[in-house]
Write a structure and sequence with these properties.
The chain is of the alpha/beta class and 403 residues long. The chain has 2 domains: 176 residues, 3-Layer(aba) Sandwich (Rossmann fold); 215 residues, CoaB-like (Rossmann fold, 3-Layer(aba) Sandwich), CATH 3.40.50. The chain has 13 helices and 21 strands.
């Protein structure tokens, strides 16, 4: 049992989804985890402390003092006790307080004292979840190392249909199990990731590039770093913030990216080629700005170095290479061909035919194919969640390879 003897601290805030926490606590105790619960006053209007204390076999805490004698419910000790903290349901109010340092409850004070990984499972109505304030707060929390467990879509308490239903208790248990499993699997592992576009100069002013934002590669880097791996991210020009705990090496051209990837390749356990590297570059780069005139302009192009192909030929037996394929037609056939040509172990297929997938979106829809012939397709998700799917697929592939 992965969760056996793990200390799990659950923070329950004011949402009708609080009733699901009774099932969650029961499932965790069944897995022999040690469970403690903190509730806000608003949460107690939806489920009683007596229910959760009975199921968890521990007192449920809500206030800074235990009774009229002034005995202190020590939020510092609670934060240090926890191997993981799960705030579920996480209301819009609690998300805002955690994001902006409004420490007016035992739950939020304990969050500020926690040294462990913290998960937030939002639950609220459609318009509240889509509000810019909530989106900004979730982004702040995510960028500072917390993990957001995205809510599901469906019928909401208001009667509206949409996104805002807290993840089911079984899903929350899965996230916690995956968290602890990944820490063990990735301890001491080195991950090399390429991301973003490259820029190939035409002259001092102009260059050839593509629409890649780098978001997918940055999310993958963050996901592996949070799981305890040592991550080197080689990135072309991108406006995405550097993930916490990731070593970022910035490059511009395909040649610079090639040099950086070759430098770090030998020491890497996993190599993930998510960058959109230019296939061609100008054969000659003008040293002065090319002047516009009425004549047509022809630029001779030559191939850039094939980074994945070169490293694939120099891959060591214990290394795992994961590639990406962005296709517009004959997607599966083209992806499988690339998988073989580049000596990848796995390939992540995007199709520009899928709405919301590919460059510049915050979402992606992927199919993962491995060299053993397995193929799994995923629904459209945020790139943060897609990164989790890719990491889980890599870990599953490694595990299957060792049994």
């Amino acid at each position: 049992m992965i969760l056996k003897n793990k200390n799990i601290l659950i923070g329950v805030s004011g949402s009708i989804a609080a009733y699901k926490i009774a099932t969650l606590v029961r499932l965790l105790v069944k897995e022999q985890a040690n469970v403690k619960v903190i509730m806000t006053d608003a949460a107690k209007t939806f489920i009683t402390p007596l229910t959760l204390s009975t199921l968890s076999k521990n007192p449920v805490l809500s206030n800074f003092t235990a009774d009229e004698t002034g005995q202190w419910n020590n939020h510092v000790e609670l934060g240090l006790w926890a191997d993981v903290m799960l705030i579920a349901p996480a209301s819009a109010n609690t998300l805002a307080k955690c994001a902006h340092g409004i420490c007016d409850s035992l739950l939020v004070a304990t969050y500020f004292s926690a040294r462990c990984q913290v998960f937030f499972a939002p639950a609220m109505d459609l318009d509240m979840y889509q509000h810019f304030s909530t989106k900004n707060n979730l982004q702040i929390l995510s960028e500072n190392g917390n993990t957001i467990i995205e809510p599901n879509e469906g019928e909401l308490a208001s009667g509206l249909e949409g996104k805002g239903r807290m993840a089911e208790p079984e899903e929350l248990v899965y996230f916690l199990e995956a968290h602890f499993a990944k820490i063990d699997a990735l301890k001491g592992k080195k991950v090399l990731i390429s991301a973003g576009p490259t820029q190939e100069d035409i002259d001092p002013v102009r260059y050839i590039s593509n629409h890649s934002s780098g978001k997918m590669g940055y999310e993958i880097a963050k996901s592996f770093a949070l799981a305890g791996a040592e991550v080197i991210l080689v990135s072309g020009p991108s406006g995405v913030a550097k993930p916490h705990g990731v070593h970022l090496e910035k490059v511009r051209s395909a040649q610079e990216m090639f040099d950086a990837m070759v430098l770090h390749h030998a020491a890497a356990d996993f190599v993930i080629f998510s960058a959109a590297v230019a296939d061609y570059k100008p054969k000659e780069v003008a040293d002065k700005k090319l002047k516009k005139n009425d004549a047509e302009l022809f630029i001779a192009l030559e191939r850039t170095q094939d980074i994945a192909g070169y490293l694939g030929k120099n891959k060591k037996q214990n290394q795992v290479h994961v590639g990406f394929a962005l296709e517009t037609n004959d997607e599966l056939e083209n992806a499988k061909g690339k998988l073989e040509r580049k000596n990848f172990d796995m390939i992540v297929l995007n199709s520009l035919q899928d709405k919301g997938a590919g460059f510049r979106y915050d979402t992606n829809k992927i199919t993962i194919i491995d060299k053993k012939g397995s193929s799994q397709s995923y629904d459209l998700k945020s790139k943060e969640m897609v990164a989790e799917d890719i990491k889980n697929a890599i870990l599953a592939y490694i595990y299957q390879s060792t049994i």
